[in-house]
Amino acid sequence: MARRRPPDRANEPEGTRQAREGIPLMRRARMVALQALYEIDAAGHPPGEVLSARFQMESLSTEARAFAQELVTGVLAHQTEIDRLIQRYAPAWPVAQMALIDRNILRIAIYEFVIARRTSPAVAINEAVELGKLFGSDSTPRFVNGVLGSIAEEIAGEP
To answer: For position 21, what pLDDT does the model report?
Structure first.
């Protein structure tokens, strides 16, 4: 399947560019990671190619690119473990039948605060909810918050 050429951002409306530039850098990195994971999950495209294409479409600093790449590779490396956690805390929603956006938002946040312990649970949950507002359905932010909040509560209760 032929890859589409990234859009030319030079001619985009000023408001679109300003809106994107007003988003915090690490959130933009999470957005890129989410979009990449979504494509990998939905279409099965190779992760390296997907990330490369995403980086061509979104101007990110070296630090933000490294963060997005860490999220994608970390989620993919720990996907089985992450999906088991999702299933445990959202038993009514089989992971394979969950909306692609919801499941990948959850995967990123769980990777950040459970696996990598890179981000505090509060920040990871807040960022996941914000991604849910941007990309998910009306119910995504509430669903994501509930699942991640339950995981965070259990982690906080561990000795």
So the answer is: 58
Phi-psi region of 44 (alpha: psi -120 to 50; beta: other; left: phi over 0): left
Is the pTM higher than 0.70? The answer reads: yes
Cβ atoms within 10 Å of 116's Cβ, excluding its own = 15
Choice among 12-26, 121-135, 143-157 with the minimum mean pLDDT: 12-26
The sign one gets for the Cα dihedral 27, 29, 34, 35 is: positive
Of 40, 41, 62, 70, nearest to 53 by C-alpha is 40
Residue 121: how many other CB atoms lie within 10 Å: 19
Q: Give residue 74's pLDDT.
A: 98
User: Distance (Å, rounded) from C-alpha 74 to C-alpha 30?
Assistant: 13
Distance CA 18, CA 145 (A): 28
